[in-house]
Every structure is written in C-alpha cells, then in structure tokens.
Amino acid sequence: MIALKVLILCVTFVYIYWKLNFDSKISMSQFFQSLQDREPAYLLLFTGMAAINWSFEIVKWKLVISRIRQLSFLAAARQSLMALTVSLATPNRIGDYGAKAYFYDKSLRKQVLLLNLFSNLVQMLITVLFGIFGIAYVVINFGIELSISHTIILITILVVMALTGYFFKEKELFIKGLSIAAVWNYFKSLTSSVVWKVSLFSLFKYLVFSTLFLLMLHFFQRGISIFEVYPLIFAMYLMVSVVPTLFILDVVVRGGVAVYLFSLVGIGEWPILATVTGMWLLNFVLPALWGGYYLITYKK
C-alpha cells in the first residue's frame, strides 16, 4: 500500500514538473516574473476564487454520495483532493472514477461510480448549455463560416451515437450489470432535492471558474471587454471538454483553443497562455499537491 502511494505521488509530481518545464508554451520564469510587478491583492483574490471553485466541487460530492454515506465537508474534501491527485496524470482525469470508488466497500463501488458519473454529467450539461451560446455568439459576430461537409459529418456522428445508444440500451457496458437503461433508471431514482442541489452547485462552479478566467485574463491584459470575452470563455470550455486528450497534451489543447478564440477580439498570445497556465496551477496543481498530503497519510 505504501509503495502504491509513493508510486502515485511520483507519477503526479513528475507530471507536474514535466508540464511546468517542458510542455509549457511560455517560460515559467517569465510567468512568475510577471507576477512580481502586480498587486498581491489580485493573487489573493484568484486563490480565494479557486478555493471557492473547489469548495463547490466538494459540496457536490458530499451531496451525491449522501445516498450511501453521510460525509462531513472535510471527509468529502479529502476524497475529492486525493482523487484529483490520483487522476491528474490520466487522460481526461478518467482515474477520478476509480479513485473515489476505492474509498468504499466493493459492494458499494458500482453505486459510487454511478453517483460520480451523475455529478460529472450535470457539470457537462452546464458546460454544453453555456458553450452552445458561446459558439453561436462566435459564429454570428465574427463571421465564421461553417463548412457544410463538417456540419454533415457532425450531425451524422450525433445521429449514429443516438441510435447506437437506443438500440444497445439494454446491453451491458464495461461493468457487469450496468447498461444505459440501468444507469438511466438509477439516475431517476435520485431525489429531486439532490438533483437540483447538484445542478445548482454545478452552475455556481461553472460561473466562478469562468469569472476567474476572465479576471485573470484582465490581470495580464487590461482593457478587455466583459461582454466580448465571456461568450469566448463559454465556447472555449465546451470545445476543450468534448475533445479527448492525453494528459501530456491537455494544456497544449486548452492553450491552442484559447489563443485562437481570444485572438478574434485582439488579445495577444502571451496573456492568454499566462492565464491558461495560472488557471492550471490554481485549480489543478495546488489542489493535487494538497491531495498528495492526504494520500500519503490515508489509512483505509
């Protein structure tokens, strides 16, 4: 068990080190140098907003897992942060599912997976709703022409996915006893109170996260328009959410999408990449390091 903990921490720390030193499109020394000339109050604000963002995530986990176990906020925080540490170096943080399931008895792990899936799907739904508005804004206001062939391909893929889901809804997925129909029935069994609260906190989390990006972008480049930038942020988060990425490419993908979108309103590459880097440090690296402490001291 100790060897496994050490291995997980080593992988996480090597991943973070590699990201900061070899996979960043901007010099980290230049990034930190730029912070020295700024008002420290901004940094405190950004850190506080990142903490609020994670608090909403922890409350969401506390809510959904209450179906099988009542957790204190601190216990939910430990599980959430340890799961982040374990999953940080996995594609699209898929390891979060296994990590959270590990905290519970084998008889409960299937339910834990479903509850975690529900929470993530609600968050994704919020991202899609705002993202559609953002993409529509970009297309309408910046004269971006949609390729007919690409549109047809996208519609075809969506139709095929819908038909596949419908005709194979009774088939087991990767886990024995779980089918699309079974998953849907389980979701319907959740109380309306839990569903609405998880949805509300997912919305709060999304708005705080998006506002933090906006403020940090303003921090690195003054004079940006809130009304222009917010829709671009919404579009960016949808685009990076639907593109599967390996862990070694996630920041590159986010940075590339952000540079393209924000260049439409004349924002330079450096402030965009600095913002993406700052968001990654505050919302993933620091919580993962904190989760590493919980992981090394964890006893099941």
Explain the overall architecture.
Helix 11 (250-263) packs antiparallel against helix 12. This protein has helices at 2-22, 28-36, 40-65, 73-87, 95-102, 109-141, 148-167, 180-189, 192-220, 226-242, 250-263, 269-296. It contains 12 helices and no strands. It has one domain (2-142, 186-296). Helices cover 77% and strands 0% of the residues. The protein is an all-alpha fold. The mean pLDDT is 81.
List keywords for this structure.
single chain; 300 residues; mainly alpha; 12 helices
Q: How many domains make up the 3D coordinates? A: 1
Q: Helicity, in percent?
A: over 70%
Separate helix tally: 12
Find the count of extended strands (DSSP E, 2+ residues). Answer: 0
- Low-confidence sequence ranges: none
Give me the secondary-structure category: mainly alpha
Largest sheet: none
In oligomeric terms, what are we looking at? single chain
Gyration radius (Cα, Å) is 20 Å
